[in-house]
Design brief:
The chain is 35% helix and 15% strand. It has 202 residues and is an alpha/beta fold.
Amino acid sequence: MLQTHFSVDLLEAGCDEAGRGCLAGPVVAAAVILPRDYHHPFMNDSKQLTEKKRDILRLEIEREAIYGVAMVHNEEIDDINILNASYRAMHLAIEKLSKCPELLLIDGNRYKPHNDIPFECVIKGDSKFLSIAAASILAKTYRDEWMKSKALEFPVYDWENNKGYPTEKHRNAIRENGLTPYHRKSFRQLPEQLSLFESTCA
């Protein structure tokens, strides 16, 4: 069972991101402050949930929690690298909270301090703390929604299913059609690293 709080005395926000390993689209982060005595029987790491359950829980989180969600898009990812982009997305999400947290619970083992807010890094935190699990659900659902909207613009890349991750169908579409304006040009798009960067979609 996931823990509700790391500290009983501090206002905590769980933080997580989605989309770090994708070939296209933004990295999305969320920060979530849950009510003090919040419990939910199905809340878990977003990767352990079906899409339908994530969508239901997103509505629950938006109704019950204080939250912020932020995106850093592929152009900035290319400029500052994916790790710094992930930190930036988290910082932006935290700044959107209507209350300033006294402690951040960060999923993973690294974080760049911001605004002098104390933090704890928690490896696999989305399977240990409710607030991090909630953040993972928001980050995942917001990003999936964004990628589905862009799939209408570029249907051959199958983003409605792969969400920009490096599936075989996605990479085959890159081989055949080149890169879109939403692809991360600093990423290794294909194993053979073809010179695709000049062959971008208009």
